[in-house]
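[Discussion] Sanity-checking designs against the backbone

I'm trying to build intuition for which residues belong where. Below is a structure token string of 382 positions. I'd appreciate it if someone posts a full sequence so I can compare it with mine line by line.
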């Protein structure tokens, strides 16, 4: 380590996991640099996020200022049948926010100069106790720690654990966002102030409100976020992953890429299978996007001074509402472990090993729960 006062971390990945790592490590006294492959802002990605305590704890530790309120509250969970009848109601208050709100808040908490867009990580090497990261641009960065927070497609994980690859779970999540004012009143009256589900044979839908443009939470300025889990064969999935430009995508169809014929088919299927409220959401969505549900769990997270964090290490199915929370817990606990080395006399390496033991167990519990929930909801025998 060059300086005990200011050790340095290189973070690969500028999405939520990378920004959580950057904000919490900076709060723990580390220098950080974030490198993101995409040359553009990532704000258009994703939809709704359930605001779990782990996320709030990590943001508070990292000094990240959130809007007030930071999301939209739902007071109860309801379950609809295919005719829009309520089959179950549960008092279960929680807050939902948007991916974009969290992304902007963390970006705003970091100095502009430490976040580098358009930099693709290639490989690393060790030089004594220092780790050197190489980028496609030819750039080389030296640090005390390299963090792979580059998600399900993690380049660092492929270098370290090439045998660990995402396994398709047999179904996908279709997603959509609808401006609050664009939904017919009959559907809005059912959904408002609620976290709404429809569970049927082999498919499941859910919907809730999230902040709108500029993180707006005023009535009328918010967005409806909906998800529809549907089974597809691997062959059908491969067809769906060919986007409107003829490009075969590996892991998702981002907004703006779904073929018009597939959007039309999705709406037809919604009218055949979903309750009127969910049909209205599908009809009002101009640009649905899709993500295959996968299972992934790494057997290790620490490889000397290179580590995996968030979805780069393990991917819980979204039924847990825990992917962002897991990344937050990974990052927060890492910052706490590394901030304690000055008081305890421990080394970075011993702190990382202790952190790995705890976080591997957390990842296993979360992924096991997601598989159990998903297979039950989707009626998949395993």
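Best answer:
Here's mine. Compare freely.
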């Amino acid at each position: 380590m060059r300086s005990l006062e200011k050790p340095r971390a290189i973070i690969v990945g500028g999405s939520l996991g990378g920004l959580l790592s950057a904000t919490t490590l900076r709060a723990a006294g580390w220098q950080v640099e974030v490198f993101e492959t995409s040359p553009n802002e990532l704000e258009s990605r994703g939809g709704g996020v359930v605001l779990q305590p782990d996320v709030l704890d990590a943001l508070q530790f990292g000094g990240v200022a959130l809007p007030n309120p930071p999301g939209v509250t739902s007071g109860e969970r309801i379950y609809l049948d295919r005719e829009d009848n309520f089959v179950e109601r549960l008092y279960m208050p929680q807050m939902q926010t948007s991916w974009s709100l969290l992304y902007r808040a963390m970006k705003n908490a970091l100095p502009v100069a430490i976040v580098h867009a358009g930099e693709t990580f290639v490989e690393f090497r060790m030089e004594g106790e220092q780790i050197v990261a190489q980028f496609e641009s030819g750039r080389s960065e030296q640090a005390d720690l390299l963090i792979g927070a580059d998600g399900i497609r993690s380049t660092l994980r492929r270098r370290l654990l090439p045998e660990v690859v995402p396994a398709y779970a047999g179904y996908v999540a279709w997603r959509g966002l609808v401006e609050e004012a664009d939904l017919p009143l009959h559907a809005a009256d059912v959904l408002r102030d609620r976290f709404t589900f429809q569970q049927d044979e082999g498919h499941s839908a859910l919907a809730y409100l999230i902040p709108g443009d500029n993180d707006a939470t005023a009535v009328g300025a918010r967005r409806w976020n909906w998800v529809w889990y549907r089974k597809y064969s691997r062959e059908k999935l491969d067809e769906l992953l060919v986007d409107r430009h003829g490009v075969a995508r590996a892991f998702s169809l981002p907004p703006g890429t779904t073929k018009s014929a597939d959007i039309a088919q999705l709406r037809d299927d919604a009218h055949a299978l979903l309750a009127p409220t969910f049909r209205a959401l599908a009809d009002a969505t101009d640009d649905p996007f899709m993500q295959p549900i996968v299972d992934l769990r790494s057997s290790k997270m620490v490889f000397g001074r290179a580590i995996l964090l968030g979805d780069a290490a393990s991917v819980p199915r979204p039924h847990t509402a825990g992917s962002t929370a897991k990344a937050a817990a990974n990052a927060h606990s890492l910052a706490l472990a590394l901030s304690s080395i000055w008081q305890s006399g421990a080394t970075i390496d011993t702190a990382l090993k202790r952190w790995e033991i705890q976080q591997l167990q957390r990842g296993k519990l979360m992924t096991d729960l997601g598989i159990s929930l998903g297979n039950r909801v989707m009626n998949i025998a395993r």
